[in-house]
Amino acid sequence: MNENPFKFGTVVDGQYFTDREDEIAKITSFIKGENHLILISPRRFGKTSLIRKVINDSGRRYVYLDIQLIISTEDLASQLLKRIYRIFPVQKLKRYIKSFRLIPSVIMNPVTGETEISFKPGSADLTPLEDVLNMIEKLGTDNKKIVVVLDEFQDIFRINNGLDRMLRAVMQNQKNITYIFMGSSESMIRNIFERKDSPFYRFGSLMTLAKISREKFTLFLEERFLKITDQAKDLSETILSITDSHPYYTQQLAFTVWELLIRSGKTPDMVEVASNDIVQSHDNDYERLWNSLNRTDMTILTGMSGSNLSPLSDEFSRLFGTGAASTVFSTLLRLAQKGILIKEGSAYSMDDPFFKRWIILRRKM
To answer: Is 64 a domain residue?
Structure first.
């Protein structure tokens, strides 16, 4: 039996990785150079998979940390140090840790082999984080810089209001680390790196990650579906017409269609059946999301699900009664920050095509 060649929900690599040759070349040049990189893309566009692939191919040592999961400055220092323990010998690290102003608790878990690290919580002291960053700098060299990837970097403000100033003060003097800052909130990331009074103003080169082109994604899908069906081209085009080339949802729908083909063979409306299966499997999630929205949110999302009109247009307002343009604009910005909408240029679209389908189906019931 052919193994399903589509993958979603985890870091994608190897045969599952889709295109991105241009982006790979661009990011590779940044890693080889002296500049730091700021990468912006909506959630589930594949930026983590892309970055990991480029760094792994480069052979460079790297640390990856998702700032969304960090709860304090002490936790940030602990999690960075924990990841350093994974790539350097313990004995080498001991001599650096001895010079820390606050010595962490380091415990080796004999079952998992993981190193559990913690600094005394509640001190609101930034010195543990500064010491860890300086240690990473000392571990790198001019020829073998360590890559530090900080995902969802805009969340630093949730951790500590002065964290951006402290990080910039340390990072600007470092020569042996290449930083990659990633974020899904374009407005917040641009605020950090493009606002003149921000500590991180023009700290690196900014790059946005767009959707994979329709043409290249079609070829990727078609090549794989040809292994089990002679309808590969039609299936691929129908899948992309539903997902609008969104990397995550395209892989998810292709995966589901593949499973149906293996079980049942080609049937009429197979992609529709697969799409409705996905909607049904997430029914409770979508219901919870819907119930968390206010009336204006619901009105705008209902209109966007049922038409191709711009939610900022006068015609959209007349048809769906969305009210003042300023209210619509602020709602769109907020929904984009929450990841429910995607903003590309000046246009907005719904991120999840299956949530869009769920709204349509529920309103027909």
So the answer is: yes
